[in-house]
Design brief:
alpha/beta, Metallo-beta-lactamase, Chain A, eight-stranded mixed β-sheet, 17 strands, globular
Amino acid sequence: MIKVLQFPAKGGDSVMIQIGNMNILVDGGYTSTYKEYIENFLVNNSIDLDLVICTHYDQDHIGGVLPLIENYPHIQDVWYNGFYELFTCDSNDHLTFIEKRKLKADFSYVWEDSGETQEISRKQGESLSILLKKRDGLIRNSGLELIVADSRPISINKETTITIISPELSDLDYLKKKWEKELEFSLKRKTKTMDDEIIKAFENQQLITSFLSEDLNGTENISLPNNTIEDLLNIETPENDTSIINRAAISFIIDSQGAEFLYCSDSDDRTIEKFLKQRKNNKFVGVKVSHHGSIRNNWDWLDCIESNIFFISTDGIKHENHPSLNVLAKIAKKNPGCAIYFNYFIPKIASFSDMFREELGCNFIFPATSNLEYITIGSSYD
């Protein structure tokens, strides 16, 4: 039996997946997500985290993972394609004081988390790679060098496997080369050092790239307030999300005794579609929709799957077009009678709930209370 809980993570992601006695936390939302929800939930329920998956270094996914790794003792395994997984050091090169200052100037990023108090705000330049290295007793990437797309499943226990959809190795190689060029440009020389300032700068560079891509990466707004279902569906194929940060995100399929749950993180539409087309059976007991319901990440791949339950994580505030009505219409049309679970009440989406229910039998399900509750998604697809 698979259970799913979406923490209130504002415009970000943080999801608990429970399979029997096994607990998997995928991302941590913002720092405030951890302090206000995740920490108390873990402590109050005495939860041992068998696996923490940090899908990619984006503020609305990793913000809560940093204090988790710092403070929560009961973690067994962490998946993260970080600096130490991507780069090797074959020299004793060291940065000068001036070079360290240059890196801080070129790759600084100020954490933004609306509503945070000063007491729980993050320290600028904090690095997950460094935190993980300092922490004793953790298994990293289940003993693998990298978490990359592969048709061969990773065994989690006797009854559960995880098959990785993304990232592809070519995406991680692109990310590495892009960083190496930017580092060389900043320092005016090549270096293979593992200096902490380089590691911090690398992760900040990913945050900066993600922030810029939100404004520069294609058109998001297609749906209009008075559209019918058919209008929402009859559009040109949306632009694919070209952000390398999102393409490098870890997406996967959990298989527990034949019940498969599809988790799409922030992966782009083409990558998910390519992987799913290689599979014979794409019936899932549940689907976590990519990138908060963005139209650039969820379109063609939706034609490849069937499910009765879908999950979307967003408060609808950070990006007014998350989730996209076009995406919701496509999900509902392809999967008659399905339920779409949200982790916030979103008035602009709720206003369409009657139309979706009456025309397509699709139910929008918003949180009824402030209590955190698991959604059981069954033991098999029916």
